[in-house]
Amino acid sequence: VHLVESGGGLVQPGGSLRLSCAASGFTFSNYNMNWFRQAPGKKREFVASISNFGSRTNYADSVKGRFTISRDNAKNTVDLQMSSLKPDDTAMYYCTQPINNYWGQGTQVTVAS
After folding, report:
1. pLDDT tens string 42-97
2. Which of 84, 98, 106 is nearest to 37 (CA)?
3. For residue 49, how many other CB atoms are within 10 A of its CB?
4. Which long-range CB contacts under 8 A does 21-26 form with residues at least 24 apart?
5. Cα separation of 47 and 100, whole Å?
6. Beta carbons of 39 and 100 less than 8 angstroms apart
């Protein structure tokens, strides 16, 4: 099983980034997928989730209205479109498959001017 995140980087406050997670080794369309994040010195926190066919999404209050989770089951990818980024969004972002507790290695997002 592999979950490989990409798309992180340095962005100015108010900017946008799109994270992507490529999944392999399991039947992707059978599973809900999540994004979590962890800032230095803080606990990992839930960011967003999407149901297996993408019909249901859920967001942390801190990102609601700014982040959008989506998936492409034909490509086995789940994306996180992030806009209106704030310094508080600085963290390592992880793609997860919660049923089997699969995690990727993470991609760093830094929001700074």
Report:
1. 999 999 999 999 999 999 999 999 999 999 999 999 999 999 999 999 999 999 99
2. 106
3. 19
4. 21/77, 21/78, 21/79, 21/80, 21/95, 21/104, 22/75, 22/76, 22/77, 23/76, 23/77, 23/78, 23/95, 23/97, 24/76, 25/1, 26/1, 26/97, 26/100, 26/102
5. 18
6. no
